[in-house]
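Hi R.,

Here are the chain sequences for the assembly we discussed:
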Amino acid sequence: MLGYRLQKRDEPWSWGAPIIVVGALVLSLGISALLLKLQGKSAVEGLFVLWQGSFGASWALEDALLKSIPIFLCALGVATAFRMQVWNIGAEGQFALGAIGATWAALNFPDLPGYLLMPLMFFSAAVFGGFWAYIPAILRLKLKVNEIISTLMLNYIAILLLEYLVFGVWKDPKSYGFPVTPEFTGGAVIGQIGDSRLHWGFVVCIGAGLGMWAFMRFTRLGFDIKVAGEGQRVAMYSRLPYGKLTILVMAISGALAGWAGCIETSAVVNRLQPSIMVGYGYTAIVVAWLARLHPLYIAISAYLLAALRVGVENMQLELQIPAAFGSIMEGLILMSVLAGQMLVTYKIRRKK
Amino acid sequence: MLESFIVPLLAATVQSGTPILYATLGEILTEKGGILNLGVEGMMSMAAFVAFAVAYTTGNPWLAFICGGLAGTVMAMLHGFVCITCLGNQVVSGLALTILGVGLCNFLGTPFIGLAAPGFSKFAVPVLSSIPYLGKIFFRQDALVYFCYFIPFIFMIFMNRTRLGIAITAVGEKPGAAAAAGLKAVKLRWMALLGGGFLIGLGGAYLSLAYTHLWANGLAGGRGWIAVALVIFAFWRPGRAVFGAYLFGGVMAFQLRLQAIGTHIPSSLLLMLPYALTILVLIFSAVRGRGGNAPSHLGINIEPEG
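And here is the predicted structure of the full complex:
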């Protein structure tokens, strides 16, 4: 095509991955700058405000760190499922269910001391989120129902379920009609670390990241999951319980997203309200893929995309640019990385 | 009851099923060629916006309708570049396309929120519209609905009776064999993808030109994903796609009617209906065991030689 052809490399291009990611970022920034221009805004000013909000001030760095917590947990979960080629697109819904689970515990046992209530909240968030992921897993195994569509539909249902609860049975009678639950108190609130704005959820994140890394690397189960990721047939020949592994990765995936929901409700907004659903679950997919499913890289790319979100919020505030600008960039980054990945295995040669 | 509730409900069913039908047929064409395109939701959103913007600025709804289709084609081109040219993962590329399309639609659409554009309005077809009941249901609609009545037939003839349609099916089943038989596999995949994108775009355009004449963000509202699910439900056959699309149109229309009448059921539970039904429909298709009807090379890229 166009006088060029692809030729397979003998060895994968070792420096390819980082160069492609940087290239993708630059390309996406370029295209988004063009879009700003089309909307009659100054592209230079826009990108400057984006940078300012992402990395330009200490509040920005702190904000990005805060936002990277739920994104990281969701992405870690999504990556575990992707590792086995189970397409869990449902982090958003599992996040919502986790928030619902944590709120259930917080509203029903308000008098428990924190050292009992907090584990209970995390436990019920993991069970709720895990259950929401178990449904598509079991449907896929027993009936071969496509999990991409079922997880996605469950996202819509989960958000509506959350709305149903806060508009109905869980609505705070003192909220003047706003759809929010009563504020969490005492033991149900995850506190700040020292004087910083960072909360203890950050430590949960580090623990979960290290835990998943060790699990995948050093345990038999983790190894099995990686093998099964080569395909159902490989798993069968290696006598691996493919079905059980699928359920396991989905449950882990859902539980981690559930924790993200729990932390977001308990530490950031201190109550359940529809505004916690801002699409972290979808961002997590971008993050996981950019990081090629590796926990350390997930941490880095979660921070990057969180910073992007903060930057876009800054643009929204200062230049009245719609928040959708962030999804445009996320979509562009993901598409260009996907397209660029070809360069790792192929060289472009001129046709003779 | 029949006159006052069921007939208007069925008429609304046909209307809200129409955009889903366009999109489902588009995705069937795409998948027949072997490309899995999960970007339907994003493509419909983008097409809805482009159609609205064109109608608003030029005042010509037919031009807007075509432009909506072309917007779908352009979005499909992105997917094709990533998956066919660069051999990227089709699942992830489709998701990215959805994120991008929905984002673009909301970003570009924000200045238009609440504005109205000239669209298609309903008119009665002479003679046919006076058939009792059926006339009111099927023949007091807008032009795009009437247009949509013909598409499944054209589609069927195209897929089963023309050289091109059969070649596309062959590429979706066995690209290697098709290529050996002298077909240009990659080119045929491109054609199916772009043609499918055009139909998906028409579905999106319907939303902003006929379903509503006012611009609001998030018009697609999951219809793209429903279309993807309906392809499986339809076993990749246009006839069953018609049934599936109208089934969903019916549920959406029913849910809106119930809200309008004012029931005690909270609206959030009613809004769950189409999404829950999508999962049920997939379970139903699985029990019938026809997932095997999928093009056997669906979602697998054609690697270049050498």
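Chain B touches chain A through 50 residues (CB under 8 Å). Residues 25 and 186 of chain B are 21 Å apart (CA to CA).

Let me know if anything looks off.

Best,
T.
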